[in-house]
Amino acid sequence: MPKQVLEQLETPALILDEARMDRNIERMRSQMRRLGVSFRPHVKTNKCIDVARRLMETPEGPITVSTLLEAEYFAAHGVKDILYAVCIAPNKLDHVMAVQDKGVQLSLLLDSMETAGILAERAKAAQRHFDVLIEIDSDGHRSGVTPDAAELVEIGQFLEGTGISLKGVLTHAGSSYACRSVAAIRAMAEQERAAVVHAADRLRAAGMACPVVSMGSTPTALFAEHLEGVTEVRAGVFVFFDLVMAGINVCQVDDIALSVLATVIGHQREKGWTILDAGWMAMSRDRGTANQPVDQGYGVVCDLDGRPLDDFILVGANQEHGIMAHRSGKVDTARHLPVGTQVRILPNHACSTAAQYGHYNVLGPGHEITATWQRFSGW
Amino acid sequence: MPKQVLEQLETPALILDEARMDRNIERMRSQMRRLGVSFRPHVKTNKCIDVARRLMETPEGPITVSTLLEAEYFAAHGVKDILYAVCIAPNKLDHVMAVQDKGVQLSLLLDSMETAGILAERAKAAQRHFDVLIEIDSDGHRSGVTPDAAELVEIGQFLEGTGISLKGVLTHAGSSYACRSVAAIRAMAEQERAAVVHAADRLRAAGMACPVVSMGSTPTALFAEHLEGVTEVRAGVFVFFDLVMAGINVCQVDDIALSVLATVIGHQREKGWTILDAGWMAMSRDRGTANQPVDQGYGVVCDLDGRPLDDFILVGANQEHGIMAHRSGKVDTARHLPVGTQVRILPNHACSTAAQYGHYNVLGPGHEITATWQRFSGW
Lengths: 379, 379
Fold this sequence. Notes:
Two copies of one chain form a homodimer.
Chain A: E1 4-5, E2 13-17, H1 18-35, E3 38-39, H2 49-55, E4 63-65, H3 68-76, E5 81-87, H4 93-100, E6 105-110, H5 113-126, E7 130-136, H6 150-160, E8 164-171, H7 182-205, E9 212-215, H8 218-223, E10 232-233, H9 243-247, E11 258-268, E12 273-276, H10 280-283, E13 300-302, E14 308-317, E15 322-326, E16 342-346, H11 350-354, E17 359-363, E18 368-374
Helix pairs in contact in A: 3-4, 5-6
């Protein structure tokens, strides 16, 4: 394939800055080494084997997935140790068994006696072995049993009498995304750690081994001071970062490795609007910065080198139209970009923006596109 | 393929109620007949030939598209008359010519002398003929020249001296989505009609033919009282409808043909939460009802027959988790749904939710899935 440069791409297009990505990965690796824990990267953000290979400790994993299609895809690319980190639904067990049949050690998650009962029944009927973690609720934001719940030990004891192996406990401090300072993230990391370690201790006190103690989110993984008692950490969005992460000081804006290449298609000069061909289909509908101190609209507009055009953001979006304007609403005519000018837009949320595309255009030095990496969607 | 029923689908899955869709299409057809205009359905909502075939007046179109990939896909399925209704960017002209080369009469849109100049240059250099419409701004929400702008006639006169045919004028009253009453939608339809007809009159007064006068949005198309001077109407979301449309009384909740099938995976009983396996990846991040009188969260939860569970909505969403609760926030324990229970969730916005899936599961009488229709994404 002849080399392409940014200027030759049809827009909108998803751009992945390889050097920034590699720097972000090295930052996480270095933190994992410092903390002395193993790393089970979450691949839900990237959904791409080329990215995952740079994240994984070995070509066989381990990894964390959010869907069984991710499990199936990464299994087809040789990954053998996969944790499906969403509580299992009964209608997914056929799919689970199909993935197991590819030689994958696939761990499942549950947080109730109800699901444990269903799983035990299916294990018996299908003569199957399942590996299971119990989800712990460390911050009240989603699923999980609380670390002190009677049900935690009940589930463990119930599983002992079935063909199911209790591998351990898992938690995710999703609330860390709403922290307003690094000190708050540190405190959340300690809350997450203490909760999941306490849960493991209770299971062990009741006679269970509980070898795995898993926690993680990008903010808490990067800012935890120590992780005593934790055996593995999960995180995914750090590989690209995004404006939500920059908004809580987990990264700087110039660490963001993902952007959307767009083109100026018109103007409404009296309003100070520049119309781009990247709307919410190109950016996603994610407005994750709306409740942060600085609302970035649908994204921060940068030049082709990835440098922000100061205070110019997407203030609005239709399906295929983005409205670029000064964030203050003032009519700033100093920034006239002729029709055809290309810009790059940093996204609020890497997971949702990347999901709008079938591939990454990998950006190397200069404006060169060095590779095209496929990604997938769906369940 | 053996017949499947809803209960056998792995979740999340996109469900299309065929009877509701057909009823919605008939409603629009009947309105078009009453208004005496031709219909150029917008296929950006469905991106699926099986749906489009039911919308189109003939197998060859006409249709409206929002991306050149839509143009390319529908051209490959035999559609010959396509309007690309987003102002053209220079880097898309190679793609435009490739679509033209399939025997398609592809009309382009522009709203400035700047773009007209670029297009004329490319037409000359490539020895190509382009058909063009000028976008008219009828409500200040996006692109277009105002109907009274001097630039409108300048563009028309400029194009006359090039190889480009000025086919007419086009407007889209996107502001109709924010109307709060049927009376307001009627007034917006008249504003849209008057603006685009006035623009056509000005071009004709300056000696141009301007055969096409195109307007449309689902609300204004359905509630316009008359469309004198308009030659064609465009609309897309009506085929499925959604909660945003129901919220402005353009349809009833039980007209919504699209839903997401999801499964209960857990509970947080003290909070009154039921956790579903449909998060924002399954619903999209669209929060289009957030500014309406009734905020529907990430969607209205229904039983398997599509009947709303009164006042139960998705109050929150993570990537693969939806949090179902009473809209008031009160802990309503009357509605306990065991793990494994399936529900159907009505979306805020059909265009964005459908975009998260690779196919529609077509729902016939009872709970039977009568077909699987592929759809596509990207540019």
